[in-house]
Every structure is written in structure tokens, then in C-alpha cells.
Amino acid sequence: MKALIVLLGLFYSVVGFAGPVNINTADAKTLASELDGVGPVTAERIVAYREEHGVFKSAEELKAVRGVGDKTYAKNAENILLK
């Protein structure tokens, strides 16, 4: 039982670290660590998209990046900043 409590505590502490991230200025490492369901490859795609198309004008524009769909966007919508 004690091990279960420790594991749950670790899980919730990791989840709790995800926070607001500016998708127009964050590097790939930050995007991967702060956005739920976004790994290093997708984070690199976000940065590449931003470099090719300019800054994101809306948070929903993030869904135009390959690897970011409706579900990933929905999980992160509250933590996506533009400025």
C-alpha cells in the first residue's frame, strides 16, 4: 500500500509540472516537457512550423502541425499561450 501511495504521488507530481507555455517563443525541449502528449519529434515540428509560417496567431492553429490533433490540443488548450 505504501508503494502505491508513493507511485501515485510521483505520477501526480510529474503531471503537475506541466504548465503554461508560449508556443511562439518556446524551444522544442520546453514544448515537449510542458505540453501533454507532445514528444520531441512533434515539438520539433511545432518549431519548424513556426519558423516556416511565422508566429501562431491562434492556439487552434497548433492543430495544423502534424502530430497535434484535436485530442492533444484539447489536453493542452488551457496551457497554450501566444504572448
How is the secondary structure organized here?
Elements: H1 2-17, E1 21-22, H2 28-34, H3 40-53, H4 70-76, E2 80-81
Keywords: Signal
Organism: Abyssibacter profundi
Signal peptide: 1-18
- Hey, roughly how much beta strand do the residues contain? under 5%
- Overall pLDDT, averaged? 87
Number of helices: 4
Largest sheet, order of strands side by side? 1-2
CATH class equals Mainly Alpha
| CATH-derived topology | DNA polymerase, domain 1
Count of domains: 1
Q: What's the name of the CATH homologous superfamily?
A: AF1531-like domain
Domain Helix-hairpin-helix DNA-binding motif class: 30-49, 60-79
Pfam families: HHH_3
GO cellular component, one term: type II protein secretion system complex
Signal peptide: 1-18
Structural account:
- The protein has helices at 2-17, 28-34, 40-53, 70-76, and strands spanning 21-22, 80-81.
- The protein has 83 residues and is mostly helical.
- Helix 2 (28-34) packs across helix 3.
- The mean pLDDT is 87.
- Residues 1-18 form the signal peptide.
- Residues 30-49, 60-79 form the Helix-hairpin-helix DNA-binding motif class domain.
- It comes from Abyssibacter profundi.
- Keywords: Signal.
Descriptive terms for the model:
DNA binding, 53% helix, DNA polymerase, domain 1, two-stranded parallel sheet, Endo/Exo/Phosphatase_dom_1, 83 residues, 4 helices, 2 strands, mainly alpha, single chain
